[in-house]
Amino acid sequence: MLVRDMRPASLAEQVGRVCALDGAVLDRMRHEALTMPNAWVAEYGEFQSGGWWTLSLFNASGDPADVTIADCEAVPTSLLERMPATRALLDGLGLVYMWVRLARLAPNSFLWEHRDYGELSEREHYRLHIPLQTNRSAGLVLGGAKVHLAAGDLWRLVPTNAHGACNLLGPDRIHLILDCYGNDGFAKLAGRSRLDDGDAVMLPSASDAELDRHVDDAVRLARLGYTETAERSLLRLFYRYALPEGRVYDLLATMHMTLAQPEAARAWQAKKMLMLGTKDEGGRQ
């Protein structure tokens, strides 16, 4: 499989700044997010290392602890009723919301390589991010690049492309994530998407020999009894190198085959299909 051509021009089609937001408004929104009751919900465990929590502001039920996104006629949750600055900004964007969440990513935490929206209807779905608290070690990784979503702007992400997220050093990264349906309001916003100098850092490529050495190191760790550490060391290569899509999952399968663990190898290939919606060699989805 070839690495896609992911020069900055093509990256801007997948992720970019949409518009600047009022700093005073963002300060109030940040205060609302940081001072709410500590009731964050862990969800999508198979997609993360741990350290990823969310709360809903718009969803199907009005319950902020209902965080598994789905197509719906979204209503404000009880939490949003206590966040007036956030509510005013959301109401003023002119969007039709499917789901809106606060998302917190702790230090040394990862969302593994995946695609979103595969389980939803064929309606047009779009995603916007509003960073409320972040740091330079936090970013999205997609197409062989790491993009830091700086505070102060509204950002667009096309989550049907393979991507992951990381927060290496902390403090917590807190984003407001807006999943919405296509309408004139979104079209006006999306037409202004751009990447500025310094937003994206292209990751280095890795030779087959380098990747083989990482697998060998992981095998040694697993033989010492540190299987989970070995697996995570391979998953984290997605944030270090520009890799072909799904390659980290193939490396995990290779590690387990080397350890004579074919069931574990098949489980990681199944995980690859779950995370990316890819097909196996027999053409099954």
UniProtKB/TrEMBL annotation:
Pfam families: Asp_Arg_Hydrox
InterPro entries, alphabetized: Asp/Arg/Pro-Hydrxlase, IPNS-like_sf
Recorded superkingdom: Bacteria
Domain Aspartyl/asparaginy/proline hydroxylase: residue ranges: 42-181
The name this protein goes by in its record: Aspartyl/asparaginy/proline hydroxylase domain-containing protein
Organism encoding this protein: Catellatospora chokoriensis
